[in-house]
Amino acid sequence: MLTFDTARKWIDRWDRQQEGYLPGREERFRALIDAVEAGVDRPDPLVIDLGCGPGSLAARLLRRLPWARVVAVDTDPLLLSLGEAGYGHTSGLRFTSLDLRTPGWSAELGLDRPADAAVSTTALHWLPEEHLRAMYKELATVLRPGALFLNGDHLDADEATPTLARLERAVHESEERRAFADARPEDWRQWWDAVLADPALAEAGAARARSAAAVEHHGSESNLLSTHVAALRDAGFEQIGTLWQRGNNRLLCAVRA
Asked: Boundaries of each Methyltransferase domain copy (predicted)?
């Protein structure tokens, strides 16, 4: 039985290792939630969290907007187990196991009305462009007109602006060096090695091992800003741009037409 204390221990450790890749992670969370609060025009928005992991963004959003409802979607059984044990008591939060690469995923969200916003952080770059495009098109069908899409991730300017791309990466790398001059936190692989060795997570780890969707990652496949902008435009979003940025770490926003 995965306890609340064990889950929160691993979620806190997850947050620390994630901060090792983006020192401005909490600032980006705040900017994203600021945008939801300012942009949805209601105190009780319905929000879809895409690639939610253990629920770090969803929990922060609900602390700011306690009347919101968040449907948090991921395909990893272990991360979902941590989220349900650590944040499952949070009013308005519901975790759902879905693979965004599988057509028809949106019908399994259990929404009772079109959503006011969809959010994601450090997740959608895993999707190959083909799946990213299909996912955005399906996402548009469950968002109301004027709904926001907010994606916080490392998204590189590409060959159209190579000098800017190089400078953005340099700014981020300089920030990392300053933040971790003394010592770096554990990395993604070290966290996974440790959590899978914890007997308390044995059942969730076994479920993860059986899930090809959970373990099938081949690196960052959609990390270009232009890829996301073009896919969003083709899916029926407009007014696409960066709301917040530090180097190549940015918050991309799009409005459902």
From this structure: 47-146
Q: By residue range, what is the domain housing residue 123? A: 4-256
* Residue 189: how many other CB atoms lie within 10 Å: 9
Scanning the structure block, which residue is given the tokens 């300053």? 178
- In Å, the largest CA–CA distance within the chain is 52
> Does the pLDDT of residue 95 top 80, yes or no?
yes
Q: Cβ contacts of residue 207 below 8 Å, gap of 6+?
A: 77, 78, 81
The string over 160-181, giving b where at least 16 C-beta atoms fall within 10 Å of a residue's C-beta and e elsewhere, is eeeeebeebeeebeebbeeeee
The per-residue pLDDT of the chain, averaged, comes to: 94
Residue 249: which H helix or E strand, with range? strand 249-256
Q: Residue 215 pLDDT more than 70? A: no
Residue 20's domain is classified under what CATH number? Answer: 3.40.50.150
119-147, pLDDT tens digit by residue? 999 999 999 999 999 999 999 999 999 99
Of 57, 217, 34, 242, which Cα lies nearest the Cα of 156?
242
Among 29, 47, 232, 186, which Cα is nearest to 122's?
Answer: 29
Local structure of residue 224 (DSSP, 8 states)? B
Q: Tell me the C-alpha distance between 73 and 23, whole Å.
A: 25
> Which tens digit of pLDDT belongs to each residue from 145-168?
999 999 999 999 987 899 999 999
Q: Count the domains in the chain.
A: 1
CA 194 to chain centre: 22
Tokens of residue 225, six digits: 């800003």
Please say whether the beta carbons of 70 and 61 come within 8 A: yes
Side chain identity at 194, as an amino acid letter? A
- pTM, 2 dp: 0.95
Residue type at position 208: R
